[in-house]
């Protein structure tokens, strides 16, 4: 009964990566629900966060399907953590914009469809990652956190899950 608490949750890295992928799929489905059922239009930073969730999910799915050895698990763990932390950085910017005083909020930009159709790719990426005044609007709050706040929590959990695979990886 004196086992370390981490021993109680030790599963194969393949299973943990699969659970991480399922978590990413759940997050993306929640974004789709809020957009298509509740009618919340995503801002540029919301779209950027969804892309980061998708990339993290792809890394986790590839890791689960590949079922690599120890070196591969560590490589996937680093890639998963990097994509999750990149998404966390976007979420942090989004939360920061939402907490700016109204006079400091950047101006609203053109709609995403217009941006994609009329701006070069580099300018589109810059607008998507910097956010606009639309990104400062808080449409949804649960337990005191806005949607970007919860997305930041999710990214930090995904990065932690990924990095825990260093401990979880066993030599064959």
Task: Describe it.
This protein is mainly α and 172 residues long. It has one domain (11-168): Bromodomain-like (Up-down Bundle), CATH 1.20.1550. The chain is 69% helix and 2% strand. The protein has 8 helices and 2 strands; from the N terminus they run H-H-H-H-H-H-E-E-H-H. It has helices at residues 5-8, 13-36, 44-66, 70-98, 112-118, 121-130, 147-163, 165-168; strands at residues 141-142, 145-146. The chain has a two-stranded antiparallel sheet with strand order 1-2. Strand 1 (141-142) and strand 2 (145-146) form a beta hairpin. Helix 2 (13-36) runs antiparallel to helix 3 and helix 2 packs antiparallel against helix 7 (147-163). The longest helix has 29 residues, at 70-98. It is elongated.
Mean pLDDT, nearest integer?
A: 85
Radius of gyration: 18 Å
Q: Low-confidence stretches at least 5 residues in length (pLDDT < 50)?
A: none
Classify the beta-strand content into a percent band. Answer: under 5%
Side by side, the strands of the main sheet go: 1-2
The helix-and-strand class reads: mainly alpha
Largest sheet: 2 strands, antiparallel
User: What is the number of helical segments per DSSP (H or I, 4+ residues)?
Assistant: 8
CATH class: Mainly Alpha
CATH H-level homologous superfamily name: DsbB-like
CATH architecture: Up-down Bundle
- The helix/strand order is HHHHHHEEHH
CATH topology: Bromodomain-like
- Helicity range: 55-70%
Gap from first CA to last CA? 27 Å
Supply the number of structural domains: 1
Number of DSSP strands? 2
Which overall shape is indicated by the principal axes computed on the Cα atoms? Answer: elongated
């Amino acid at each position: 009964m004196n086992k370390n608490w981490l021993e109680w949750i030790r599963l194969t890295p393949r299973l943990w990566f699969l659970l991480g992928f399922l978590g990413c799929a759940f997050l993306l489905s929640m974004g789709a629900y809020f957009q298509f059922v509740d009618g919340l239009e995503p801002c540029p930073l919301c779209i950027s966060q969804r892309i980061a969730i998708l990339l993290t999910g792809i890394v986790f799915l590839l890791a689960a399907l590949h079922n690599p050895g120890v070196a591969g698990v560590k490589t996937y763990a680093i890639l998963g953590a990097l994509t999750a932390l990149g998404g966390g950085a976007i979420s942090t910017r989004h939360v920061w914009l939402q907490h700016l005083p109204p006079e400091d909020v950047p101006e609203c930009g053109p709609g995403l469809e217009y941006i994609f159709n009329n701006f070069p790719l580099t300018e589109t990426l810059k607008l998507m990652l910097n956010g606009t005044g639309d990104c400062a609007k808080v449409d949804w709050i649960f337990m005191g956190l806005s949607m970007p706040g919860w997305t930041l929590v999710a990214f930090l959990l995904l990065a932690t899950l990924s990095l825990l695979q260093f401990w979880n990886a066993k030599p064959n």
